[in-house]
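User: ok so my PI wants both of these folded by tonight, can you help

Assistant: No problem, let's get them done. Here's the first:
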Amino acid sequence: MFEYQGVKISWLGHDSFRIKNGKIVIIDPFKIRPISDKADILLISHEHFDHLSLDDIKKVSSDKTTVVTIPACKKELSSLKVKEVKAVKPGDKVVLGDVTLEAVPAYNLNKFREGVRIYHAGDTDPIPEMKSFKTDIALLPVSGTYVMTPEEAGEATRMIKPKLAIPMHYGTIVGSESDAERFKQLAACPVQILKSE
């Protein structure tokens, strides 16, 4: 677990994160252990099996969970026993209590009123839109093959200019901790490598 200005960030492995700041936000649970603190807000970035995993979603959700996802995932998630499933498209903003979510092209950008912004890149390469993103913490994939290589993730930090980056998308399907270490050497900002919880 890593704390940044009162926001607690835990890497749950692969692209999965738990963010605590009053509410519990969980992003893309995949191959995780059951957890006792269920999500108030669950973000599913896209429909790939390692992001939209119903078995893992059931481990972290309850009838009090609001799921925010893209339209392509809504139907598959409609059978869940959750509070609601909201579909968003780039440009949409969703306010859930003191958490504001902003959907940007192919990515989720979380904004907290306390001033900490967290960007979860999902599966992506460095793209021109990153130059306009404003975030404190960037959660970036580093394993290559399906997502950015460590070198490309380093380039993404130069485009996004976050205060801190946390590598993800390694150690489960492809990639290893050496990819995270290589990214740390190449990044244009401080990098915090988290242990999977």
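One down. Here's the second:
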Amino acid sequence: MAKKAKSKFDPKVFLATVDGGRKVSNHRKDDVIFSQGAPADAVFYIQKGKVKVAVTSEQGKEAVVAILDAGSFLGEGCLIGQPLRLARATTMTDSSVMRVEKAEMVRVLHAEPIFGEIFTAYLLTRNSRIEGDLVDQLFNSSEKRLARTLLLLANFGKEGAPEPVLAKISQETLAEMVGTTRSRVSKFMNKFRKLGLIDYNGKLQVHSSLLSVVLHD
């Protein structure tokens, strides 16, 4: 008898279906996906929604590490032997998140080269973003850092047309991302709006002209 042909692996199907080692959870806004200090035993994939990753110091000060959209992975530190979560992940909107157990993630990365390529490309892009954030913190003013953050949240520089910032992001959260105070964020946001660089109309609309703030010396 002829052997049954192996079905072609489809990464989109893998990240959309529940199977051994994979399950999907639906979260409301402000749900905790994982806590800082919790066991790092799985990788998560955002199917729908927006997630905030933040670190809290022993003194209780919080810093926002990343705002992740649908199509993003998080919690990948478990793959390099990280025993505990270094940050907390919280939903910013109603979200659907897939949990992939560490063993299943390791298996598919070894068994399916196409998935390994996609995951590696994602990590390289994210690493480049982190390097850019570090340079931003070291050399740019808080006003420029806020402008860059808003542009990134609106997907400027990615494929496709820029979008409004769909999730309601508080000025306090923006201050935590930028590394400044809420009052300074409020001052800069008002300045950007008066200059026509952003608009508030139910949603925060970021215009490409905001790039002028980032590029201005």
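The first strand starts at residue 22 and ends at 27. The CA atoms of residues 133 and 169 lie 19 Å apart. Good luck tonight!
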